C-alpha cells in the first residue's frame, strides 16, 4: 500500500482566497503534498483538475466545493463536497436535500467546521453546523486549521500573536466535534474524519502591521489527510481521482498534524483469526481481535472504543491491544510541540462488528 498526503478545504481567487489555482499548486509542491482539493464557496470550478510536476515530484490538484446558503444570516451549515460533477449550490437552502444531491451526483459530503467559536472582536460569527437531523453525509471535518484561530484568540493581543506566530495555533480539534463524531459512530453510522486547512491567505492590515493570514504553503505543512491507497499517482486523471475519492469514502486515512513532526507512516490495523482490517474497515469478531498501532516516532497514544479511552501508552512507537468486545475503535496521538502537548494524529475508526 502507498500513502498520499492530501490537503483539503482551500479557497482560491474564485471565492475569497487570494491566490490562483496555479499559485496554490506551487505552494503545494513547496510543502511536498501529493493532492490538493480546492473548495471555493458555492462554485465548482471546471478545468482546473491537473497535475503539476517539479523534478520527480507530482502534485494533483482537484476541484471540490464548499457549499452553503448564502442568503442565510448568520451563516451556518457549510458543507464540503468532493467528486460531484455539477454545480449544486442551488440546493443549499435545505441541507438534507443538498447532501442527497451530492450523493446522487457521485460525490462525498463532509460537514465543515461543525463546531466553532465566534471571534466577536473581529465581527466573525461562528459558522457551526446546526441542522443535526441530517443523514447520509460521509463524515466530519474534525479539525479546521483556520477555525482554531477563533478558538485560541480571546483578545486582540492573542489574535495578533497567533497571526504572527501561526505555528502556535493548532492545539487540538474542538472537544464538541470529537464528541459528536463518537456519538454518530456509536449510533452505528460510518463516519469518516477529515482535517481541513480552510486556507485563504487573507491580507491583514491593522495600523502599521501587515501580514498574510496564513500563507498557503504554511497551511499545507500542517493539518493533512494521509490516504492509504493501492498505488502512487499514475498520472491518469480519472484513475487517480477515483482512487483518492475511494480512500476518502472508505476512511482509509488518518488526519495528521505534520508541523511538529511528520505523521507519514502511522498505521492502525486489526487482526482477527483469519481476517484483518485497516482504518475505515469493518471486521467481524470471531474470538478476539488484536490491534496494532505504529507511530512514526514515540509519542502518547490512546486507543478509544465507543468514545471512551481504553488504554493510553506514553512514549511508545508500537502499541498492541487485544479485545473480545465489538465496538468502534479509533486512535489519537499527542506530541509535545512549542511547550505544549498537542493533538498529532487521529485515525479513522475500525468497526469491530459482532458476528450474528
Ligand atoms: Zn466554511
Ligand atoms: Zn472554507
Summarize this entry quickly.
The protein has 356 residues and is an alpha+beta fold.
Structure commentary:
With 356 residues, the chain is α+β, with helices and mostly antiparallel strands. It folds into 2 domains: 2-257, Metal-dependent hydrolases (TIM Barrel), CATH 3.20.20; 267-354, Immunoglobulins (Immunoglobulin-like, Sandwich), CATH 2.60.40. It is built from 7 helices and 20 strands. The strands form 2 sheets. It has an 18-stranded mixed beta sheet that branches. The longest helix is centred in the last third of the chain and has 14 residues, at 237-250. The chain is globular, with a radius of gyration of 20 Å. The protein starts with a strand and ends with a strand. The mean pLDDT is 97. The structure holds zinc ion (2 copies).
Amino acid at each position: 500500500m502507498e500513502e498520499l498526503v492530501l490537503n483539503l478545504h482551500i479557497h482560491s481567487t474564485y471565492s475569497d482566497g487570494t491566490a490562483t489555482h496555479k499559485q496554490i499548486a506551487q505552494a503545494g509542491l513547496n510543502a511536498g503534498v501529493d493532492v490538493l482539493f480546492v473548495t471555493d464557496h458555492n462554485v465548482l470550478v471546471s478545468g482546473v483538475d491537473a497535475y503539476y510536476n517539479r523534478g520527480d515530484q507530482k502534485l494533483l490538484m482537484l476541484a471540490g466545493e464548499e457549499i452553503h446558503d448564502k442568503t442565510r444570516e448568520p451563516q451556518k451549515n457549510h458543507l464540503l463536497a468532493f467528486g460531484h460533477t455539477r454545480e449544486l449550490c442551488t440546493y443549499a437552502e435545505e441541507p438534507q436535500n443538498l447532501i442527497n444531491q451530492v450523493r446522487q451526483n457521485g460525490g462525498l459530503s463532509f460537514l465543515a467546521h461543525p463546531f466553532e467559536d465566534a471571534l466577536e472582536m473581529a465581527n466573525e460569527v461562528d459558522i457551526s453546523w446546526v441542522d443535526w437531523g441530517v443523514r447520509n453525509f460521509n463524515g466530519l471535518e474534525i479539525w479546521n486549521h483556520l477555525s482554531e484561530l477563533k478558538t485560541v484568540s480571546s483578545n486582540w493581543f492573542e489574535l495578533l500573536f497567533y497571526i504572527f506566530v501561526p505555528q502556535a495555533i493548532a492545539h487540538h480539534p474542538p472537544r464538541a466535534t470529537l464528541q459528536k463524531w463518537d456519538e454518530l459512530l456509536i449510533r452505528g453510522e460510518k463516519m469518516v474524519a477529515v482535517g481541513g486547512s480552510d486556507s485563504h491567505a487573507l491580507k491583514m492590515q491593522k495600523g502599521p502591521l501587515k501580514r498574510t493570514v496564513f500563507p498557503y504553503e504554511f497551511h499545507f505543512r500542517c493539518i493533512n489527510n494521509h490516504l492509504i491507497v493501492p498505488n502512487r499517482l499514475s498520472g491518469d486523471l480519472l484513475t487517480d481521482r477515483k482512487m483518492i475519492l475511494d480512500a476518502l469514502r472508505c476512511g482509509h486515512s488518518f488526519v495528521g498534524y505534520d508541523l511538529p513532526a511528520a505523521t507519514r507512516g502511522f498505521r492502525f490495523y486489526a487482526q482477527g483469526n483469519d481476517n484483518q482490517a485497516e482504518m475505515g474497515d469493518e471486521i467481524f469478531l470471531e474470538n478476539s481481535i488484536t490491534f496494532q498501532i505504529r507511530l512514526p516516532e514515540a509519542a502518547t497514544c490512546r486507543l478509544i472504543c465507543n468514545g471512551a479511552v481504553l488504554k493510553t501508552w506514553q512514549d511508545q512507537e508500537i502499541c498492541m491491544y487485544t479485545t473480545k468486545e465489538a465496538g468502534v475503535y479509533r486512535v489519537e496521538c499527542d506530541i509535545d510541540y512549542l511547550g505544549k502537548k498537542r493533538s498529532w494524529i487521529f485515525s479513522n475508526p475500525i468497526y469491530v462488528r459482532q458476528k450474528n
